[in-house]
Amino acid sequence: MIITRTPFRISFVGGGSDLPGFYERHEGAVLSTTINKYMYVTIHPTFGKGETALKYSRTETVCDVHKLQHPIARQLLLDHGIEGCEIVSTADVPSGTGLSTSSAYTVGLIHALYAYEGKYCSQERIAAEACRLEIEELGEPIGKQDQYGTAVGGLKVIRFLKDGSVEVEPVVVSRDVQKELNDSLLLFYTGMTHSAGEILKEQNKNVVAEEDKFNSLVKMTGLVYDMRDALSAGNLDDFGSMLNENWQLKRSLATAISNDLIDKYYDMAMKSGALGGKLLGAGGGGFLLFYCPKERQLRLKAALSDLTLLPFDLENSGTKVVYVGNKDW
Fold first, then answer.
1. Parallel, antiparallel, or unpaired: how do β-strands 52-55 and 85-91 relate?
2. Hey, is 61 helix, strand or coil?
3. pLDDT tens digit string along 110-122?
4. Are 151 and 6 a contacting pair, CB within 8 Å?
5. Predicted confidence (pLDDT) per residue in 212-248, tens digit
6. Average pLDDT of the segment spanning 251-273
7. d(CA 43, CA 49)
8. How far apart are CA 15 and CA 30, in angstroms?
9. For residue 152, what are the β-bridge partners?
10. 277 near 46, Cβ under 8 Å?
């Protein structure tokens, strides 16, 4: 039996610059971090040697891998030539909430399959293979930040170069700054989920066709490096204001990114002590993230008391194998 644990990610600024409609014209970048909420993927041989079983929100058992309905698992098993196994996935948060559950599943399963074969694969190679699978093989209209954001741990800048390659650069901060940042970030679940693919399709189309939206995304990538410098210098109030500036730019990129209810909660939070925030993921629902100094948090929590608060901590590690059982078959 092999078990992998892949952390979910929070993206602070630059989201959307990981789409080819942007980075092929202007280098893209995001600043993100992993958190201590995870996707767990378990793989082990099935008792029925001719069967392959898959357990996620539903259960599939087939004698031919081609007949699996889950596109990611089906394609990866075919790519690796593996059958006769059972794969089980468990997540700490629901899908469609902006924490990159889908890419964390892809990353975690790739890692598990390599370990199942007795092979080592680096985190950045796993991320690159996850991008190839989701974008090229399955044709998903998504970018590359989630795969790298979940595979490689810690606070980092992820750069999307014009030739399609990706570079990951860690952001170095002191322990005191990281603790203060950790203690000042709050996640609230809106109760709404979203279809990232449809929102990203519209956003990519708009960025390609409309110069003002392209220029907004250019400003967002500039904020990545401003925010990195603010974190390195320990200027967390500046971090909060940049978070707000990024959100105002992002919500203008596509109509479905925000809605009246999200805007209402965001305005309430800003009036109740938050210095900045954003909706995580492509938009339309999921988690609202806010930066709020500790002395103002009681007021903020009271203002958003009808939303579910998700406690979390920053995580420094990326995808990892957390259990290896004996291979006695």
1. parallel
2. strand
3. 999 999 999 999 9
4. yes
5. 889 999 999 999 999 999 999 999 999 999 999 999 9
6. 88
7. 14
8. 6
9. none
10. no
